[in-house]
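The protein record passed on below.

***
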Amino acid sequence: MARFVMDVSPFVCQGGRMTPQQRHALVRNNLVAYLLGGGLMVLIHEVVHWLVGAALGYRSTMFSYGVTQQPDPGGWHAAITALSADIASLVLGLAMALWRPLEARGGFAHLLWLWLGFTSLQEGITYWVLTPFGAGDTAMAAAALGWPIWAMFVAMAAGIAGMFVSARLFAQPVATVAGDEIAARRAMAWWPWLLAIPFLLVHAFVMFSLQAMSLSVGEVVVVAMAGVSNGVFAPMSFIFARQAHQPAGWQPPRLSPWPVAGIVAFVVLVALQVLMRGGITIGG
């Protein structure tokens, strides 16, 4: 019994404890922040593909879950159009993960900042993991540039290492918001991710069925699974829970029972995705 108490002691709340109502509000606010932040991340990612393709002289069409260029770019142009968004996601995500200006203010705005930043970081990382499997931004760049197979597996290894780095970075914001209590940390970093999975899968397949962009079955599966994996840093952050602790003077965050503004913003974002089903074209 002594050993068990010692093992769970990092999760014993030292400066306060959330009520069940506060934990439920934390789940709801993080769930909406995850869905909205992840949706904004996809939009930003695709806009970069869209603009870079047009800047290189191609007819660039953006859909809710992808971008096409006409004619198909090859060589360095293909690599640039593919890697540009991946690099943008990595840079934006890392910057937002390390610089958290809304942390002192807290609230839904801070949670949205966290989920947008970390899903952006994970988006860039996930594509590196998928490199040897022939799908995604880095796989397209590798094929265009003729990377040897060993280089693709090096990229995958770098991506896997990046997943642990992302999880470690997320562990401290979890402790800052939720404190040291395990139930509160689960309310922030476990339940929102788990509850979002069925919605993300249904949403992805509905969007694919609506949009005019042609995708293979393999591409649909990869994109859908990538959408789910973009939040995996959250449950993985528990690996590093012992290295992250609540700040001195920690108090439970003040959150609305339901983040109404976030829900409205998410509905608007989904409506925009539906309107983009036929594609928006520039350049060429």
